[in-house]
Amino acid sequence: MRSKLWIALAILLLSLPVLAVEYDPKLQKAMLHFKEGFKAFNRAEYPKALENYKNALDQKPNATQIWYEIGRTYYKLGLMDHAILSWKRFLELSGDIPKELGRKIKTLFAQEYRRESIMPSVYKYLDTITGTKWDMGRFYSPTSITIDDKENIYLVDAGAPAIIKFSTTGDFLARFGKNELKRPMGIALDKEGNIYVSDFGEDSVKKFDPMGKMVLKIGRRGNGDGEFIGPEGITLDGHGNIYVVDTGNTRIQKFDKDGNFLMKFGKTGHYAGCFAHPVDVLLDENGDIWVTDAANGHLQRFDPSGNFLAEFKPPAEGVELRGMIEEKGRAIFVSDAKGMIFRFEYGLNQWQ
Predict the structure, then answer these.
(1) CB distance 162 to 175 below 8 Å
(2) I want to staple 212 with a disulfide (CB 3.0 to 4.6 A). Which of 81, 91, 176, 282 is the partner?
(3) What is the mean pLDDT of residues 264-272?
(4) Predicted confidence (pLDDT) at residue 13 exceeds the cutoff of 50
(5) Are 313 and 298 in contact (CB under 8 A)?
(6) Whole-number percent of the chain with pLDDT over 70
């Protein structure tokens, strides 16, 4: 790590205009800010890194390496348009750079242009699955939904507590959890087909095997580690770790696949990194954690360790953001309690 830092600083020095022999206070300040920014970037503290890099640019606005590092930081924050502008400035200033690096950056420009040009502008209604066609498939107050690798649909019903499974065409397949659930809110599946449900009414998370048998219960009412007050959204990562929106305690909790508490993050408030009424949680393909907040009306992004990265507000007033699903590596669809669906392309920081 130390060697990488000094290599970067050496590149910075080589990037700066030829200096006089005398002491240059602006260069010294730029180096200090760059060093702090580089350390913060390696700790995945991207907002802090960006602040330091910008302070370095205030001292030396034509330092090519700083422009490159700012681009990397914007990229990590999901602000692709800012990253591209920073890297374009880097290319303008750098002159002779390794061909491979220039090719990668220019390829990224082209990819983002194509992605923007093919962004869908119209979404067409396809079908409705009604809960009154079959007795066993009837539902009253659906709260969450997920789909398995065969496109079967799993729905949790808080009104008549149960998990209901339908085929991709809406045919009723199974109903279970009636005696184990009180007021289910969120649902998620793991790779083995096990079903995880957050039970708002019993302040816990419950795991069912693919046959519908409850095999694990996590948590109880309270505000300690591993305890909940009205949990809502739930999701899993590729290792089977469980992320739960602990709504009443305004935080996110993480557990391993056996239900052991691993970490928590978040606190009550209306500022960046805080929650007022968190509802749903999602992990993108980079492992970053996204959380909707109905009361604050925004979407927040955290790194895998729970450090705040950025917040995003949709282009509408009075929204109550709730459920989410990802279009892998590209965008997040977010539902609004007032009857709208937003599409947020996080690479370009654009709402639709």
Answers:
(1) yes
(2) 176
(3) 91
(4) no
(5) yes
(6) 82
